[in-house]
Design a protein that fits this description.
Elements (H helix, E strand, L loop, with lengths): L1 H12 L2 H31 L2 H16 L6 H20 L9 H9 L2 H22 L2 H5 L5 H35 L7 E4 L2 E4 L2 H11 L1 H18 L2 H21 L10 H4 L4 H4 L9 H25 L5
Antiparallel strand pairs: 1-2
Pfam family, one: ABC2_membrane_2
Protein name: ABC transporter permease
Keywords: Membrane, Transmembrane, Transmembrane helix
Length: about 300
């Protein structure tokens, strides 16, 4: 199995597109980082953090005076005012801008790009063998089809994890170079008390929750690519569902069946911010649904590949 994975890995890196994906991930981190540093420098020259904090207080007070917001929104505004006043009283600048943690939190939203590139690999790693005719040579080896398909799936996941590591490492390095070491303190309101926020723990939790969409997108693209032998169909269908999944869930929200669709649960970050797509769902329930669909996707992929006639 290890030799099969090694062979797939070498074939992957012989393609120029693979190197282009890595380069794009790096560029999409460095580019926004430079722009953020530029605008941060301009803002620092124009206004101090204390003036900015006072402006925030005034803005929230203006919004509190309006009747256009719900009680939950007004409670949020009151909490933000209390936090800003606490900062001013204790001379505690925010870590919101110009810090490694805030920059890595920003680049964490770019994990969708990592997922996209991994989906492209997962969709084409099987279908390309059929389109080029190399699948016949591959199956002449004294190795079971199950092992061949497993090696391809593992290679796709390993590549995705590699891009994830690149994203994290490059983000940390760029953040350190552009913004220096950690400065300021991030605060939050917990049970009526203002406490220091565990920024790194929250960031790690966000990365972990992002794995739901990452895994399911790869498995679905791998399924479509294996069954229909079309990488373009697999990529297009997976991206279509990724971008329209929220609308599909919203359209079906009046029906109970929506609770059992994997699109409802793939974005686990909904449990991070509390904005659940469907009321009543829980993390264990979502993980169970995703596990069931993952098994279904894998079973269909393997059955299709094992039984397909490739002699023609």
């Amino acid at each position: 199995m290890l030799k099969l994975i090694q062979n797939e890995w070498m074939k992957l890196w012989h393609k120029k597109g693979t190197w282009a994906m890595v380069a794009l991930v790096i560029l999409f981190i460095i580019g926004p980082g430079i722009m953020m540093k530029y605008y941060e420098t301009k803002m620092t020259e124009d206004i101090s953090w204390k003036e900015s904090e006072q402006q925030t207080i005034n803005n929230y007070k203006d919004m509190l005076a309006s009747d256009d917001f719900s009680s939950e929104d007004k409670k949020h505004f009151e909490d933000q005012i209390a936090i800003s006043e606490y900062r001013l009283a204790n001379d505690m600048p925010t870590q919101e801008d110009g810090s490694v943690a805030s920059f890595m939190s920003f680049t964490g939203s770019m994990l969708a790009l990592v997922t996209l590139f991994t989906v492209i690999i997962a969709a084409s790693i099987v279908s390309s063998e059929f389109s080029t005719g190399t699948i016949k040579m591959l199956l002449t080896r004294p190795v079971s089809r199950a092992k061949i398909l497993t090696s391809k799936l593992l290679t796709a996941f390993i590549f995705g994890l590699f891009l994830f590591v690149v994203n994290v490492v490059v983000s940390a390095l760029v953040g350190l170079i552009l913004f220096g070491g950690p400065t300021g303190v991030e605060l939050e309101m917990v049970n009526g008390q203002i406490v220091e926020k565990a920024v790194w723990n929250d960031l790690a939790y966000h990365y972990l929750l992002s794995g739901g969409d990452f895994v399911m997108s790869i498995l679905f693209a791998f399924l479509v690519g294996s069954v229909f032998r079309s990488s373009s169909l697999a990529i297009g269908l997976t991206m279509f569902l990724s971008f329209t999944g929220g609308m599909i869930v919203m359209f079906l929200s009046r029906y109970d069946i929506v609770k059992y669709i994997w699109l409802t649960h793939s974005d686990l970050t909904q449990y991070e911010n509390g904005n659940l797509m469907i009321e009543g769902i829980t993390m264990p329930f979502s993980l169970t649904i995703l596990a069931i669909y993952a098994v279904i996707f894998l079973v269909i992929s393997y059955l299709s590949f094992m039984k397909r006639d490739v002699t023609a």
